[in-house]
Amino acid sequence: MVLPPLHLALAWVVLLTGMISFVPARADVTKPSGAPVNTETRPRGRERREPEPTSPTPEDRLPVIEPKRLKLLRGETIPITLDSVEDSISQRVRYFIRDEPKAGFLSELKEPAEDLSIATLTYSSDPASTAKTDQFTFAAQYPFGRVATPVPIILEIVEPTPVIQAVPALDFGRTVLGAESVRTIVLTNSGTAAFELDPVLDPPWGWVLAPGEKSLRIPPGQAAPATFAFRPSKLGGFVFRLPLPTGLPDKPGVLFTGEGVVPFTAEPETILLDFDAKTRRRSARVVLTNPGPEGVTVLVASGDRLESPAGNRIWLEKEARKELLFALPAKDASAFQGQIHFESSGYQRSVQAGAPATPGFLALTGVDSSLSLDLGKVFPGESAEAVVKLRNTGGQAVSANFQPPKPPFHARRLSEASGPQEIAPGAEIAFAIAFQPEAPQMVRDQLILSAPGQEFVVTLRAECVAVPSKVEVTATTNMTGGGMASGPGGTISHDTVPAVVGPVGSQPSGSGDYSSMFGATAVAPAGVGTAAGRQILQAEIPKAVTGRNGELALPPMISSDGLLAFSPHKLKTDVKLPTVPLFRVHHSTERSALLVWPRPQDKHSLFQVEVRATSFNREKQRPECIWIPISKVKFTVADTYVTADVFGLRPDSYYMFRVFAMGQTGTNSLPSKEAGVRTLRSSVSLSTFVNVGMLAMVIAAGGGIYLLLRRNNLL
């Protein structure tokens, strides 16, 4: 049957009106249908009242609820959502707790406004409880009042555990004793509980805390660095496992490894210094090795006697090796026993060192490097002595043998010793060698000194010479002339040196009569003032010659004009000297001078004429002279007189001469008294110079005109 639309509308109104009166808004679904209505839109807390059971009808629908199983840590609070299986008809669902938990606490139920089919609450595990599981039950009810069967929520309570992740091993390498090696690792906590590191570790391991830090705590899910140190105090390898909750049975922590090494090694422990016969030194070597990973400084103390070129501070690079030389100086000959101390970073080592005394060794003094001893020259009846010392520079006594020389050498003190003589270490024997000749002679001999492994053969030389004859020198008259010519400082003036070229000039006959020149009495010239201020009336020359070396250098002499003159001559002292010539200047020309002297009674026919050259010594601020032999001279030897024609001189110049007599054996006499002369002026007149100058001007002008005409092609 089809109802009219109006009837249908009325039916829907009646139906809806009945439903509203049957289910009050926000009614308490835990109560039966006849209970009073709860007008609150939402319950203020969890429903603790049990709903009255009703008999389900086929039309009623029940919520389908599935049990839940959750896991949490002891003491942890977790959120729980209560829901039912979703069906095709969305309905409001009310939830309530049936059985409370025993090992935890539930919060109030909350129904979110956006979803009327769920409810939320939290469960907090009791930290003091030891239960491993807990549960509570809840039920659900649809709006028609039907209640579903209670469903349990099972809670598995587990203990919170930290899980640390880190490197499996940490090697600290080789570490010097007394030092430390530091390593840092990162610890990551991937567990469920915070991890706290125990800061106390057994030596040689240590935990390095930051300033102000007392412990290391790593919350779950975080990481932190941890620094550890290895401080070995003895040699050898060290192994330690840092216990960590890694969760891995085969890797229960971090394995620490390290090795304690010395900062250096010194080998060998005992040394014996070897003796070197050449250098007379005793030495040995010590090897220092650094086995550590870093360079070290080693301090060395070897005492006062041992020497080391390396010094007392040795730097050793890592894993380096160095040899050190220790030696006793040659002058230290006694036995040695001591220690060499090494120290670095508090580590010390000592090396025992020893050496016996060096063998006896003799050193000879008082002779030259060629083992020669020259006692010089003496006259008959005189003596010469020299002291020779023999010293034992070794560390042991030595037996010395002496073989003295023969007369006229005498070895006093040694001649009394018979056989070997013992010389203690550091002791010496001094003895004298004397030369006592009786007649002129040259003597050579040997003094032999010997010891085991040594022999000194000393060559002795000496000479006995005859006494030379005395030579009397007769003073002669000095000829004075013009002023002294002086040259530049340190150089010889050319004004006083005779020329080596030029004409011979006038040469008087050597057979003339010059007796009138030597018959008159010589008159001394007036005093000549010198730079020193003293008056000199005659030349200063030696009266006699004595010597001990066979020849004597002629000393400087002061001339009559007060100038000091040096001479290159040497006089023989072991032969009779020729007679000293006594000469005069006969005359002079513009370029020559004639010297005349009586021929000596010993009939010597060889002579030498010298001229004095003058220079100025700027350092001493005074003029000085030197005598120079003349090569431009012609000698004429007659029966009674000798003439010397000196040529190549300069006009109007002053010259000072002296003469030597030369013997057949190369000897020369003492120098004669010097004499001076001025050469004549040149005879060339002023008109001659004028004519020559005019002629030169005419020639020069003519040459210029000629060149000018040629340039203009006129010639």
Number of domains: 6
Biggest sheet: strands side by side, in what order? Answer: 38-39-44-43-47-48
Q: Report the CATH architecture of the largest domain.
A: Sandwich
Task: Give me the Rg, rounded.
Answer: 68 Å
Helix content: under 10%
How many DSSP E strands? 48
User: DSSP strand (E) fraction?
Assistant: 35-45%
Set out the fold topology.
Elements: H1 5-22, E1 68-73, E2 77-82, E3 94-99, E4 104-106, E5 119-125, E6 133-141, E7 151-158, E8 164-165, E9 169-176, E10 181-189, E11 195-197, E12 205-208, E13 216-218, E14 223-230, E15 236-243, E16 253-261, E17 265-267, E18 270-272, E19 274-276, E20 281-289, E21 296-301, E22 313-316, E23 321-328, E24 336-344, E25 347-355, E26 362-365, E27 372-378, E28 384-392, E29 398-403, E30 409-412, E31 421-423, E32 428-435, E33 441-451, E34 454-464, H2 515-519, E35 528-529, E36 535-536, E37 551-553, E38 557-558, E39 564-566, E40 570-572, E41 584-588, E42 592-598, E43 606-617, E44 622-629, E45 633-637, E46 641-647, E47 654-662, E48 675-678, H3 686-711
Parallel strand pairs: 1-7, 9-16, 18-25, 27-34, 39-44
Antiparallel strand pairs: 2-5, 3-6, 4-5, 6-7, 8-10, 10-14, 11-13, 12-14, 15-16, 17-20, 19-20, 20-23, 21-22, 21-24, 24-25, 26-28, 28-32, 29-31, 29-33, 30-32, 33-34, 35-36, 37-40, 38-39, 41-42, 42-46, 43-44, 43-47, 45-46, 47-48
